Q: What sequence folds into this?
């Protein structure tokens, strides 16, 4: 089972950091946000890098995650609404508290984050492996 740890936008430039926070979208304006973002054009996503090293007790800011949303021709679609998810059963990250700008590594281990588009349409997803050491 996956747990939503952040919502945000893919970046406006290639290999740029995401803009993320805990529950930043509200339901009344979400459809308009998706239309404005051209999110329906997204066919794939790419994480660069696909691996992050972290330490127990040192927050991982969401802007450390670099994710590109791409259309069918591989061209960047800027600022697409995304969701960042972690496995709920894992104790590697603290997912029990709201984290407005970061997530806290709680114990040593490895976890895979799933970053996916959240608007209607074909969308895309990518994975980022987080390796946490003491």
A:
């Amino acid at each position: 089972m996956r747990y939503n740890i952040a919502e945000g936008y893919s970046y406006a430039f290639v290999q740029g950091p995401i803009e993320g926070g805990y529950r930043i979208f509200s339901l009344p304006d979400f459809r308009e946000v998706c239309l404005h973002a051209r999110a329906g054009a997204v066919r794939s996503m790419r994480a660069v890098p696909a691996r992050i090293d972290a330490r127990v007790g040192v927050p991982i800011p969401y802007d450390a995650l670099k994710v590109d949303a791409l259309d069918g021709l591989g061209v960047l679609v800027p600022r697409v609404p995304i969701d960042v998810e972690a496995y709920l059963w894992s104790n590697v990250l603290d997912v029990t508290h709201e984290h407005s700008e970061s997530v806290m590594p709680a114990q040593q281990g490895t976890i895979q984050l799933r970053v996916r588009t959240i608007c209607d349409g074909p969308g895309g997803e990518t994975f980022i492996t987080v390796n946490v050491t003491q």
Summary: Residues 37 and 104 are 29 Å apart (CA to CA). The domain at 2-133 is CATH 2.60.40.1080 (Immunoglobulin-like). The mean pLDDT is 87. The chain is about 5% helix and 45% strand.
